[in-house]
Design a protein that fits this description.
alpha+beta, 60s Ribosomal Protein L30, Chain: A, 2 domains, 8-stranded antiparallel beta barrel, 5 helices, 18 strands, about 15% helix
């Protein structure tokens, strides 16, 4: 009975310390916050956003505490363009491939999205009525409701056909022409973001159970939050029978942005409610007991049998599977970099083989025929290799085990003397390193 009283007294003391050590808080942040990216040497402008959240602080030391909670945020960006947009290859109503060209004047895109974040930070604070504090840690951001509004003073679309060396400019019924004072909207699905976070400032004691924290904050993203898009995704969509009224926007266009990491900074105000830990609570006095009279039951340590974990042993690829893996992928049309349905089946089979067998890495190389400039062919070859790599990554192959290269027109399989041979030279090859 006296032993139980001792355990109960210790438990009351521990719980009392924990109750005293907690602080609940309400946080308000304000400042520029959004996605940080560059477009053709033009940097996006972060617009003023906000954050409101609730938090919990656990004081485990007179100068140290753990801070967490949940926050709701608004992120905003604006980008302006006044130049020619990167060219992509599209297919017209007759099935012919052409180079899709876009020029804009007064292009302005405003985007915003909301996010729910969960921070986890260590806080150091001095003692006294007025305290200096600094927080450091990270947070996870779950984005939703992304939306972009696009306004363009003037937009011109045209199509350049390499085989004919002709550029079509004013054919509205073929999707080429000029529009003025154009406005549209679109949305993009964003990935979960991870960011480093820091806060520093001064806190003031308002009452025995209320403390005001004032300071500055910064959140720096660690990963790109915009999902990869098709290599032939233009800023302004192409429609074969009319001048388009649809837009992908900067975030949904290929080769437009260099990164899409979260960035936020500004002023933070936090109100803390609770009584931080000031002193230990002594357990209630207990009667002195004679340990010699106490009888303690023996403790038997249970031995658990070790769990045998079955490890899948990977084997080298067979000759037939290796031959199937290294079979070239042929891109039929000039400038095409999109994975076809048949190629998807072939790539899915390759992904299964790579997961089944033991291998070191793969080298993916893109090739073209000799139509077009050398620089353009190197670019198309790289886009084809990247498209194959993206599909394998989406199907479970690790990014660090893939190398991508482009040879352009320099290594043809067949002489570029006719359309059939040129078509066979538009390919992607996979080389396996075991």
């Amino acid at each position: 009975m006296k032993k139980k009283q001792l355990i109960l007294s210790l438990a009351i003391g521990v719980i009392g310390n924990i109750v005293q050590a907690q602080e609940w808080s309400v946080t308000l942040n304000g400042g520029p916050q959004g996605l940080d990216y560059h477009v053709y040497n033009e940097k996006t402008t972060l617009k003023t956003g906000g954050k409101i959240g609730v938090g919990y602080t656990y004081f485990f030391h007179p100068n140290w505490s753990l801070v967490t909670g949940a926050e709701f945020s608004l992120f905003r960006n604006t980008i302006r363009l006044n130049n020619e947009i990167p060219r992509t290859y599209q297919v017209d109503s007759e099935g012919d491939v052409f180079e899709y060209r876009i020029q804009t004047k007064g292009y302005q895109e405003k985007s915003r999205f909301y996010g729910v974040s969960i921070p986890l930070m260590i806080q150091y604070h001095t003692k006294g009525t007025t305290q200096f504090y600094i927080n450091a840690g990270g947070q996870i951001v779950f984005p939703f409701s992304q939306k972009s509004t696009i306004n363009i003073s003037e937009i011109k679309t045209s199509g350049y056909y390499e085989d004919l060396n002709v550029e079509l400019t004013n054919l509205p019924h073929h999707g080429f022409g000029t529009l003025t004072d154009w406005k549209t909207e679109n949305s993009v699905k964003l990935k979960t973001g991870f960011a480093l976070s820091a806060v520093t400032g001064v806190s003031f004691k308002l009452s025995e159970k209320v403390r005001l924290y004032t300071g500055v904050y910064v959140d720096y993203g660690l990963n790109d939050m915009v999902k990869p898009v098709s290599a032939n995704s233009p800023l302004i969509k192409y429609e074969a029978e009319r001048i388009t009224q649809l837009a992908n926007g900067v975030l949904s266009s290929s080769n437009m942005i260099d990164q899409s990491k979260l960035l936020a900074y500004g002023i933070q105000v936090r109100f803390g409610f609770g009584k931080p830990k000031s002193q230990s609570i002594a357990p209630p006095p207990i009667e002195k007991v004679n340990l010699e009279e106490e009888v303690y039951p023996s403790v038997i340590e249970l031995q658990k049998e070790p769990i045998k974990e079955e490890i899948l042993e990977l084997k080298p690829l067979s000759d037939s599977d290796k031959k199937e893996l290294e079979k070239p992928f042929v891109f039929d049309n000039l400038g095409n970099t999109t994975i076809s349905v048949d190629q998807q089946h072939q790539l899915s089979r390759i992904a299964e083989l790579l997961k089944k067998y033991d291998w070191h890495s793969i080298r993916i190389t893109g090739h073209t025929c000799n139509i077009g400039t050398e620089d353009r062919n190197l670019q198309v070859g790289m886009e084809r290799a990247q498209a194959v790599a993206n599909y394998l990554i989406e199907n479970g192959i690790k990014t660090e085990k893939i190398e991508i290269h482009s040879k352009g027109e320099t290594f043809p399989l067949y002489p570029n003397t006719n359309n059939t041979s040129r078509q066979k030279n538009r390919r992607v090859e996979i080389d396996l390193k075991e």
